[in-house]
Amino acid sequence: MTTPPVGIIMGSQSDWATMREAADLLDELGIAYEARIVSAHRTPDRLWEYGKTAVDKGLQVIIAGAGGAAHLPGMMASKTRVPVIGVPVQTKALSGVDSLYSILQMPRGFPVATMAIGAPGAANAALMAAGILALQDSALATRLDEWRSALSASIPEVPTDD
Ligand code: RP5
């Protein structure tokens, strides 16, 4: 079985409601992915194994979502040179600001491309992954350009009262 180019990983089943936004957008753009629960705190060995094998498996982008003390994206970035896009999942206690700060402020040397908090961030993570893959895939580049044009075309120029 060949590995898809994108890995979507998340700290918990509870993150899937958010991370599905990324999966749905990858589906829309015709990009294959795998989705896995890989927790930095609860399954550290799984995290280590996923990061250790990412390059050899052929993953090209990893989208990592987590909430709270969200160490998953940063730890994954420390374990593989595959680009990691971080999605701060919105938490109840601190509205996702905890997740955002946990993911965003990486030390020099191990970057995580950090998206917005919650569902918009997950969707943008998919679009960011698509942009990276489109550099080497002209058919995908065309699909992404069309997707962006359709979004622009859907925005009305004049506001209405309803
Ligand atoms: C993090 O803790 C997960 O990424 C999740 O966002 C948060 C809460 O997890 P659950 O208690 O819902 O499993 O590790």
From TrEMBL:
Binding site for substrate: 12, 15, 42
Catalytic activity: 5-carboxyamino-1-(5-phospho-D-ribosyl)imidazole + H(+) = 5-amino-1-(5-phospho-D-ribosyl)imidazole-4-carboxylate
Gene Ontology molecular-function annotations: 5-(carboxyamino)imidazole ribonucleotide mutase activity
Biological process terms in GO annotation: 'de novo' IMP biosynthetic process
Designated gene of the protein: purE
InterPro entries with a match to the protein in the record: PurE_ClassI, PurE_dom, PurE_prokaryotes
Enzyme class: isomerase
Protein name in the entry: N5-carboxyaminoimidazole ribonucleotide mutase
Similarity comment text for this entry: Belongs to the AIR carboxylase family. Class I subfamily.
UniProt xrefs under SMART domains: AIRC (SM01001)
Involved pathway(s): Purine metabolism; IMP biosynthesis via de novo pathway; 5-amino-1-(5-phospho-D-ribosyl)imidazole-4-carboxylate from 5-amino-1-(5-phospho-D-ribosyl)imidazole (N5-CAIR route): step 2/2
Known EC number: 5.4.99.18
Matching Gene3D superfamilies: 3.40.50.1970
Residue ranges of domain PurE in the record: 4-155
Function: Catalyzes the conversion of N5-carboxyaminoimidazole ribonucleotide (N5-CAIR) to 4-carboxy-5-aminoimidazole ribonucleotide (CAIR).
Keywords, ordered alphabetically: Isomerase, Purine biosynthesis
